[in-house]
Amino acid sequence: MNREQLLSDLTRAFYDASRHKRNKPYQRLFAARLDKNLEALCDELINRTYKPLPSTCFLINDPKLREVFAANFRDRIVHHLYYNYTHEWLERTFIYDSYSCIKGRGTHFGIDRLEHHILCESQNYSQRCYVLKMDIKGYFMHINRQRLLDITLRQLRRLRQNFGSSLLDFLEYLSREIILLNPTDGCIMKGNRAEWLHLPKEKSLFCSPLGCGLPIGNLTSQLFSNVFLNELDQYMKRELKCKHYGRYVDDFYVVSCDRDFLRSLIPRVRYFLLQNLNLYLHEGKVRIYNASFGVDFLGAYLKPYRRYVNNPTLHRIKKKLPLVEHETCPKHIQARLNSWLGIMGHYSSTHLQRKLFLPMRTPWQYGRFVEKRSKLKYVLKEA
Description:
Blueprint: H1 3-18, H2 25-32, H3 34-46, E1 56-61, E2 65-70, H4 73-91, H5 107-122, E3 130-135, H6 145-158, H7 160-163, H8 165-179, E4 188-189, H9 219-239, E5 245-248, E6 251-256, H10 259-277, E7 287-290, E8 295-297, E9 300-303, E10 306-309, H11 311-325, H12 330-344, H13 350-357, H14 362-366, E11 367-372, E12 375-380
Parallel strand pairs: 1-4
Antiparallel strand pairs: 1-2, 3-6, 3-7, 5-6, 8-9, 9-10, 11-12
Helix pairs in contact: 1-3, 1-4, 4-8, 4-9, 6-8, 9-10
């Protein structure tokens, strides 16, 4: 591996990792001695002496209680380096209907694709059509790290001609260091430890089976989660011949006019996940929808030729409305309101937007709501 090229790639990775983090103390501390820090990190990588530092563990409660492991800033640079080298080539091995953490293929793309599959299978709702939705129980906490490493190395070796032997050898080394790391070892815990008592065991890495679990919050975890479940995607498309199939992280669906066919898939998927990936279906979330009556997916509720905000998303917005009523900074009010209005603007929700936001008092003191093309926007008064 050429040292000069690696140092240049690390510099790019540093700026990628610094995006939206310029005011964070850890970023400023690393940037204060940028050249020396990058050169030291470069030497560790070349000499194969690099070892990740302890992560910081904490809980977040939006939209629900989750455990997050934040990598040291130095390690985030390495994550971006690895991602910059590999993501473009690995993503080419994914199916088109894999939506999460891929540029241009986010939640709205996933919703569009589900609607497309329903329209195709039902012939524009002229035939009865069903959607089988399935979920994986405690996905990130039950990813077997050694199995993930084997799958990742196999994919990288298939792409050998794109990397070259020197870079491939380096990526194999980094894959081992990143994937096999147990983030709970020596981690720094922040917050009230009593709060962990309210976290279900299947949602915590501290309760994961031996050798299992990826830290939620790492860039590489997002990439590796797709690499791991690409095995399921290929099985669904190639072996089970599911034409209308899609997946967002661990939430996946199949669309078909044959309800019995969808029912027959459930035990086969359950067996594949257990035997090949050591994962379990979330039995409480296996459900078959009649597409004409509505399908809940990625924050949207799809009905024939229209889509609505689903109830959990709407509940979260309603829960936070009092924060705006007690806010005194006009710019903060504008940011919050336009964030919610932007979310709701993707759905058939004009009447709902008026009902929720127009009766509010505080926003009218600093600005007004403007409606354009059946969408509301909040603008501040001119100074």
